[in-house]
UniProtKB/TrEMBL annotation:
Protein name: ABC transporter domain-containing protein
Lineage: Bacteria, Bacillati, Bacillota, Bacilli, Lactobacillales
GO molecular function, a single term: ATP hydrolysis activity
Alphabetically ordered keywords of this record: ATP-binding, Nucleotide-binding
Residue stretches making up the ABC transporter domain: 23-150
Species of the source: Streptococcus pneumoniae (strain ATCC BAA-255 / R6)
Family matches, as InterPro entries: ABC_transporter-like_ATP-bd, P-loop_NTPase
Entry keyword annotation includes Iron-sulfur: no
Pfam annotation, one family: ABC_tran
Length: 165
């Protein structure tokens, strides 16, 4: 990253291979304060790239410079069905030392009726709203979001995009 904080995340000569080459000698700079989208066909390696960008997977070669404040929660499938949404929100609030109010996040995402229930009782849309609330609650400077609006109806998609604006 450049001094002055102009860049948020940098890929330098990145090669990423699994069963296939996902990236080869790629350079890219993600600027601070901008929103980027990554569009590609299913199975092309988008999630694998996010895993590498978040340091969950090693690169074949090259370097990725990430900010210390990066939040990545790959999928609602990572949620433990025996825990409640409130358990997760409290965990994120404590780990990230967030000054946001839990009740405000719960109210914004309209989760009060179910936030204390075990996640195994949540629908896909309910889980997705929880994960989105976790992103906001983290107050991280950089988010990697993988198919974050999957399972959301149009009403909650719009709330999400309004909140980003």
């Amino acid at each position: 990253m450049r001094k002055g904080g102009l860049d948020m995340l940098n890929l330098t000569h990145v090669t990423l291979k699994t069963r296939q080459v996902i990236l080869q000698d790629a350079d890219f700079t993600f600027k601070k304060g901008r929103i980027y989208g990554l569009l590609a066909i299913n199975g092309s390696g988008k999630t694998t790239l996010f895993r590498a960008m978040s340091k969950l997977l090693p690169l074949s070669s090259g370097h990725i410079a990430v900010p210390p404040s990066l939040f990545y929660y790959e999928s609602v499938e990572w949620l433990d069905g025996n825990l409640s949404g409130m358990d997760y929100l409290r965990l994120i609030k404590n780990i990230w030392k967030s000054d946001l109010n839990l009740r405000d996040e719960i109210a914004y995402w309209e989760m009060a009726d179910y936030i204390s229930l075990p996640i195994r009782k949540y629908s896909l849309g309910m889980k997705q709203r929880l994960v989105i609330a976790m992103y906001f609650l983290s107050q991280a400077k950089c988010w990697l979001m993988d198919e974050i609006t999957n399972g959301l109806d149009e009403y909650y998609r719009q709330k999400f995009f309004d909140r980003l604006a």
